[in-house]
Amino acid sequence: MRKNIIALLLALPYLCCLIPSANAQVLGGKHVFSFLDLPVAPHIAALGSVNVSLQTNDIALSSLNPALLRPVMHQDLQVNYTNYFGGVKYGHALYGHHAEKYQTTFGGSVQYIDYGMITATDATGTIQGTFQPRDMAIQLTASRRYLERWYYGISMQYVHSSYQQYRASGLAFHVGLTYQDTAQHWQAGLVFRNMGVQLKTYTKDNQEPLPFDLQVGISKRLNNVPLQFSATIHHVHQFDVRYADPDFQEGTIISDGDTATTGGTADKIFRHFVLAAQWEIGRYIELTAAYNHLRRQELGLPQQKGMSGFSGGIGIITRKLHLRYARSWYQRSEALNQLGVSMPLKEWKY
Fold this sequence. Notes:
This protein is mainly beta. The chain has helices spanning 2-15, 42-46, 265-270, 293-299, and strands at 76-83, 89-99, 104-114, 118-121, 127-131, 134-146, 150-163, 166-181, 186-200, 213-221, 227-233, 252-255, 258-261, 273-281, 285-292, 310-317, 322-331, 334-344. The longest helix is centred in the first third of the chain and has 14 residues, at 2-15. Residues 4-26 have low confidence and may be disordered. Residues 1-24 form the signal peptide. It comes from Chitinophaga rhizophila.
């Protein structure tokens, strides 16, 4: 059974090239509510922003895969803060509750993004005043165990955006599944993210799709060392996820309004992968590092990639308090910093 699951997950990126819709390659600019893919917590950012199978007690991972919400996260409260690029700031809070009567674990979260004050001008550049764009998402999650090794979960997310007179709202759903072998210390996960529809569009009769993503992954914890490795594949349904800039590439072609370049199959496949490692040092320290190849290839400067695509984080884990910090390198001179605190409220009871 385990070998069959691993073989299927490893074969998915190759199978996705058989899907007819895989010809479109640009990820950004074609969807609404793209902020749903932002890493909401430092642990998520340290893992390369994508992970569906990590074996941990951090409730933040349920934001990536609802099947990772477990009973051990009962009464866990977490608050995260991100100082994003361009003065953008956003916060995220979530809470977990296990209902023993229904054998179900529930979670709720709120995400709020503040873009600051923006100067409004007309077509001639005349200043008309200022406005403050905002994004918000409210999420409800439920997760259950099936038999001994399977977990499944679903999240429903209400999304709202307000950009001056342009406003939109929608519903997004995430459906996840995990298979865990505690004896061999490994876990496989699968999630369908951002399935849904706009309830209200920015402009009349202009319905836009949500940033759907099909992700699969495997995590393995070593038997004698507190070290865990993860490999996650994103956009399984879309083979070519490159964005090729004709200013930096040669041999470009035009397909469906997008620029693309001919390239090797190996690079196309590897852009789907996010690799991560997590090391528990003693009882209280947790180190995380990851590599996102797509981020490095798309955002790193041609001759000065530096640490682009890499991310790392540290966690101080005690019984009553979890503190986390992460730093993600998008470009050589641009990095994202995130802070988070989690309190298992059940441990504060006397």
